[in-house]
Task: structure prediction
Amino acid sequence: MIGKKNLRFRSYLTYIGIAFLLMIMLSGFSFARTNIDRSITISLNKFYQVPMNEVKAGDILNVEMQVTSGSAVDVLLLKPSDYSEYQNAIKQMGTVNYIANGSSLGVTTKKYTYTFPEAGDYYLVIDNTDVPKGGGPPMNQVEMNLKVRVETPTMQTSGSTPSGSDLTSSTSLPKTPGFEAIISGFVIIVLFFRLSGNK
Result:
């Protein structure tokens, strides 16, 4: 009798484990590799950098920023070699290369996504200097709210966000994993009643 109860308990655990894994796989949740949500202050002619290491091709960068005090800034997505050039450009008034689709110049409020086409290390720089040319002119210290998130999606869909998508002008709503979670919950309930009926 004890062995039968032990076997039934193991069956419960097995089915619950399978249902839990099914719920995770179907939910479409993303795992964050970089996650920053803070208020920052950038002095005049200075910058704030967010290093993003070991980014995978297909990872999604989500940027949301709002200047609460001060002038417009530049948001620059840089490769490591471009980041070194950027630091030199500040000192020597030179030019800098940056990934245009993942950057935004002269902004006080911006929300956008960028899908990385290739793996590697990257930097997101919030710039309050006169680099690059055509960017926001630095006037004073800047205070701002910044959210940066790099996610590795668990499922790739044919309707994935294109590189450099501006969320402030997007008309399509993002897909939510609620429907898949409801199905998974239903599966758990059905398995529970089926197993409890076999007593």
Q: What stands out?
A: The first helix runs from residue 2 to 27. The helical segments are 2-27, 80-92, 178-196. The chain is about 30% helix and 35% strand.
